[in-house]
Each structure stands twice: as structure tokens, then as C-alpha cells.
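Extended Data, panel c. Modelled sequence:
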Amino acid sequence: MNKLAIAPYKGIFRSLRFRNYRLLFFGQLVSISGTYMQSMAFSWMVFTISGSALNLGLNVFLGAFPTLLLVYQGGRLADWWGGRRVLLLTQSLALMLALSLFFVTSSSVAMISLPFLYGFTVAQGVLDALEMSSRQVLVRHSVPDKSFLVNAASLTTSLLHLSRIAGPAMAVVILSNWGAPICFLINAASYLVSLVTIYQMKLAQNQEVQSLFLAN
């Protein structure tokens, strides 16, 4: 009997019955929690170096501004090239950024300056904008039965809110005991977890390219 013909499971977690969505959900839960953890540690570092609330606000603005410019183009790129490919690329680049930040902050405090931190913030903001759209496209492709799609979208939204709580909470503990560089290292490891789960997703070949025809 076709599994898709079975009546949908009851409960808010029913979309997790699909292997692809389970992999995406748990991988992104780890990754996004790590991102919020790094964001809080990074903001703490900006304020520690500058001692200025204005500089801290500017850093937040520089991180959010790329989203206003690129989120739409990121969606078009994900539809054209495939959400999984874009997500693999952006998370690989974010992993390298996190590792670079770890090595710089743990080995040479003299190299850390506000221009360096601002540049990192802009780069991370660009990757986050592209990643956001790709994740939404991949959610759509990871749920083969479209009657589950609304539930999957709701779970993904809940995932984001849970990550906003878990990430900063972890950052507080790690900052007070081991310092900001460890936050950056753990975030790099969280990207690695996400890359493994995304790579293990098994999508039909037409799911990688079908959005190209829809866009045209």
C-alpha cells in the first residue's frame, strides 16, 4: 500500500514521518541554534571592543541589511539552481567563516578591529539571506505529500523560534565559562552537522530542477 495514501498522522509532528524532512528539520535545528549562539557571542565581542551601544546597533543593522536586498534574489537562485545545492554552498561558506573567526579571535587579539567585525557581519548577512530562501524551497521539496506541507511550514517556523531561545542560552553559558572563540568553534561544528544531514537527503532529480520551469 502506498504510504502516501495513508491518512495523515495526528499531532503537530506528523511531517517528521518523512525521512527527508526529518533530516532537514534536525540538521537546521542544530545549525540555526549555532548561528544564534554565534550572533550573541559576536555582539558581545563588538560591544566589548568598542564599548559603544551605537556600534553594536550598527553591527546588527549591517547583518540584517543584506536580507532586504537579497532575500528575493536568493529565492530565485534556489528555484533555479536547487534549494539543496544553494544550502550546501551557503552553509559550507558559513562554516569556513566561523572557523576563520575562531582562529583569528583565539590566536591574535590585535587583528580584531571594528572594520574586521563589520566585514564579517556583512558576509554572514549575505549568506543568511541566501540560506533563508533556500531552506523554504527545500522544505517544499522534502515533503512528498502536499497535505503535510502546511504542517511542515509550521514546524519550520517553530524551529526558528526554538533556535532563537536555545542559541543565546547556550552562548551565555559558553561565554561565561570558555569565551567567544568556543562559541564560534561550536557553530562551525553545527554547520558540519547540517551539511551531513542535507547531503543525506534523497530528492528526485526533477525536484532539483522543476522550479526552473515554474519560474519560466
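Confidence is low (pLDDT under 50) at residues 1-9, 208-216. This feature is highlighted in the accompanying rendering.
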